[in-house]
What does this fold into?
Amino acid sequence: QVQVAESGGGLVQAGGSLRLSCTASGLRFTDNAVAWFRQAPGNERERVSCISGDYTDIADSVKGRFTVSRDTAKNTVYLQMNSLKPEDTAMYYCAARPFVCQRRASAYAYWGQGTQVTVSS
It folds into this structure.
């Protein structure tokens, strides 16, 4: 019933920018928590950001370069990525759960299919 989908990934040169979008059907983002995770081959899955109500969190590894925001009218959450580095290369996933943000990926019931971000040097 609930479907989550990401878009906006692609290939970009180091120092460039991308904006990822996350949309959902059957779930209002205004009343729930939406998180961004990323995973590269050989690396652990990392939570990049989360937004719930007026609360936002950005991981230390991307703080100052990435921001998360929500458009309530469009029921869309964005991840703006600036000053991209090759180490940002990963599959990026959008995930949602009721009410509040949680640290563990297992706490999120709804996941998108992922969108690939590749940063070249």
